[in-house]
Amino acid sequence: MKPWFLFFLLLPVTGLRSQSMSWNCALALQDKEISFSLQKKAGSNTLQLINGKETIVLDQWFLKDDSINYPLSVFDAVLRIPFPIPDPIAGRYCKLDSRIPGYFLPFRTIGKKQTDRSDQVNKQPSLPKEWKCIFSEDGLAQDSGYMVLDQNNTSLHATILTNTGDYRFLNGEVKGDKAFLQTFDGGHTYYFEMTFHSSFKSWEGGFYYGRSGKQNFSGRAVSGNFLTDGFIKPPAGRFHFSALDSSGKQKTDLDPEWKGKALVVQIMGTWCPNCLDESRFLVDAFSGKPDNVAFVGLAFERKNDLQYAWNRIGVVKKKLRIPYPIFWAGISNKDSATKALQSQFKVTSFPTTVFVRKDGSILKVHSGFSGPATGFYYDKWKQEFAVILKELSAQ
Predict the structure, then answer these.
(1) How far apart are CA 208 and CA 194, in angstroms?
(2) What is d(CA 17, CA 15) in angstroms, rounded to the nearest whole number?
(3) Is the pTM above the cut of 0.70?
(4) Model confidence over 335-370: pLDDT tens digits?
(5) CATH hierarchy code of domain 231-394
(6) Is the dihedral of CA 203, 50, 93, 25 positive or negative?
(7) Buried-exposed string 346-374: b where 16+ CB fall within 10 A, e elsewhere
(8) Where are the domains of the chain?
(9) Whose CA, among 51, 135, 295, 350, lies 20 to 30 Å from 387?
(10) Residue 7 and residue 130: Cα distance in Å, rounded?
(11) Cα separation of 305 and 61, whole Å?
(12) Please, what CATH class does the domain formed by 130-221 belong to?
């Protein structure tokens, strides 16, 4: 049976391929719910997952164990719905690469959300645009971030930048002194809860992630980005790496294919949303790079298995149309990455980008990546990257 015809049969209830369809969904996260929507355009079998300002295309599916499974973009995760498809839909978000066997979060379709009309509600006080966020446990700060917040009366869109990356596209609402932000992009399941103090210049709240993760989440209004620029002092001496190609053959920086070329080395993982944002960025940059500069990806994956790693790398390379080679360098932790690089600097985040001169010495090391959700900071990195690439080519 042809896939398009089978899809026709699998559409909920009496839906037709020629019809446009839309489902409002709620993903259970501990005692919270993350809302998202699924849409299908008329004449298309492709679904779109709407996560605030982000649209994620789901253009593949397969049947397994009496369920229809929709892979979530390039992640090793699926939306799993029982077949025959019930109405309303009740399914599961399954993370196939989770270290917890059988990891899933349930989701369901819901009726249309009630949207407040601006002329029917009291105007919400304007919130500051910039915030310092503190993540803490047991009274001890674990991390800090710089939030950029856009408000349209009760509607909120935001992202949080940190020294290791950003929280990508967040969306939510504010009502009175209560607010929330959320995201579900196939890799992240995050929910932020906030209660503002009377001045609306600070809040206390909670950060919820996964089936049981929780941290205290507080914030105060600030002026300007207080984070570092992400650059790490490059060590002296030659840069080294060791990784495996798809056949299990060792690849190193001393291979003849890199002779006479400067390198842009991407330290990444296919499970890492910030790494995938950087991969999209590097795909765009690749077409305009100098001929004497090569791009190389070193992937650190969640399972210590060559076949699994290369399956994941292959999916990402095909989906994102990555033109440069990516090799498997080990298991996905920072100690493993530092060991594989045989270098004097410690890998503190995924992704990390290393700019290597033709003689093997390191020009710059940049930790983390500010993706498209960060707006100004993403555009700023585009400009900085172009300058570094030009400098790298000239040396």
Answers:
(1) 12
(2) 7
(3) yes
(4) 888 777 876 678 889 999 999 999 999 999 999 999
(5) 3.40.30.10
(6) positive
(7) ebbbbbbbbbbbbeeebbbbbbbbbbbbb
(8) 3-110, 130-221, 231-394
(9) 350
(10) 46
(11) 25
(12) mainly beta
